[in-house]
């Protein structure tokens, strides 16, 4: 929607944008390969390329790469891009720089679903802990929890006029859900409690190709819905009054954005656990790098940057060479929080619009 | 312009009542019933005190909030029968909300005005770009196109917001306090742009303002909202009918129909006779009124001022009882007289 009149300055800006995308794509490829290389067993880059192209047939490495590392790297890319894009949507819709995919309480809803299953039916779950069925139970319960919140939010967004009310209701709902999860935790046995805590730390691994296919379908649907919201998001930059006078149906627009963001962040939370700060931080980095508010640039930029950040977090979480594995949620927090602090301190103007 | 079905650009309000409906279904009427009309290429200013419902009226006409009852006719079509997307091609709105999105450039902001005309992905066509360019030329912001919006001055930002409304290419433009927060030259700049738009571009313009002098200069018609009624007419008609005075019931100001402006309502205790050099006399009288003296031209007051001119400079003689004092400036004169007021 936003295109500049043809000035020389304009072509310089376009050149810069194109170069940035190219640079990010290169970093993305390098990090993707690095992520495939790192782990308890180091696989050299040449071997990775050989295995991917089918030139090399080393059995052990092939198993490690295709059964573990590749699905994990793909999950990282899906998670990073989905969370970042939904964070961007939320920040524009709520006109709040600190909004993220979890403000609507979708992650909290997913947590409640998982808590109910793990903590409520823990004995049953422990038996199937490592089985295929157990994993699906976890995912389906998280999805059900997220879906429930989505329904609630949709209902609210069709009734409540004021966007700030929706934001506050979302936060309140998240707190209520967390409180309920705490109660469940309090009455749980230690063994099941640990299973829940591990889930809540987030994990990119453990996904089978079957699950990955389901996750990828969800993310693709979410992204397709996002495409429909880009033009509206640009209008929403001017606030809801201006948008309405431009012919935007606000309720419809909110519904579309909430739906896509819930599908995106709900799916990721279901499969990977709650992953914090990526959704809040990445859109700010995208705005800073590309120096634009135009969502036609910010959406692909957040998508790429989110993937890059998540791959980076995954590489760091393995502490290369040590054989140790950190919870990915901690790593994203350590990477994301400085960005959020920077936003609060240096972008007071942005904070003041909220 | 764009819409052939809306060629006469007439907006007619019939028994319109504006206000809010609470969640419980109760009505809170802000103003009404209103029966007025806007014709093509007319520039109409709305004047009224804070909280009387000027903004509510604008928002209701713009379709941003539902009316309580009555009708808003665009030509002869009820506005509730016009889809939101069509309304966006008929009426554009400039609000008092400040757009301070970081990293948004002026050209991008103006281009958002093309929203109702672009497709799903909002790609701008050549004609769209041309309209954006024209809008920037008409409002004098074409040199600011690459600047981020949050770096603009208040006056520049207001012009950019008007350019955005122009890019929306609607026959009617509604503006909520377009001159608020602006310094005097910037206010006149905005009014000149709006005047040009109605005269040259044949736009119908409806705006609110607190600046009566400016509104009287520029508007074809004023809508005065006071004591529960909406009075309409050319500024001069309203002067003749003494409508402006209704704005100032129970307020410490009053309308001065000689200067088209407001001034403090003062209880004048003392009288002062001002005579002498006529070119300074008016200013002297104004100063007397400021400090609470009723200035008259002739009569037997306790205070008599005679203004004279010595070597091209004014001088003031004050006769009070038997004393005769000389002053070199109005400031010294008023400072002395204040002891008696």
Q: Strand content of the residues of chain A, in percent? A: under 5%
**SSE pattern of chain A:** HHHHHHHHHHHHHHH
Shape call of chain A: globular
Q: Helical element count of chain A? A: 15
Most extensive interface between two protein chains, with residue counts:
A-B, 37 and 45 residues
Distance between the termini of chain A: 25 Å
Query: Which CATH class of chain A applies here?
Result: Mainly Alpha
Low-confidence stretches of chain B: none
Plain-language structure description:
The complex is a heterodimer of chains A (354) and B (341). With 354 residues, chain A is mainly α. Chain A has one domain (78-346): ABC transporter involved in vitamin B12 uptake, BtuC, CATH 1.10.3470.10. Chain A has helices at 8-37, 45-53, 59-94, 106-120, 122-127, 132-159, 163-186, 190-200, 209-236, 240-245, 250-272, 278-290, 295-317, 328-346, 348-352. Residues 1-7 and 350-354 of chain A have low confidence and may be disordered. With 341 residues, chain B is an alpha/beta fold. Helices cover 28% and strands 30% of the residues of chain B. Chain B is built from ten helices and 17 strands. In chain B, the strands form four sheets. A six-stranded mixed β-sheet of chain B has the order 6-7-8-3-9-10, with helices on both faces. In chain B, helix 6 (184-199) links the parallel strand 7 (172-175) and strand 8. In chain B, helix 3 runs parallel beside helix 5 (154-167) and helix 4 (126-138) runs antiparallel to helix 5 (154-167). Chain B is elongated and about 85 Å long. The model of chain B has no long low-confidence stretch (mean pLDDT 87).
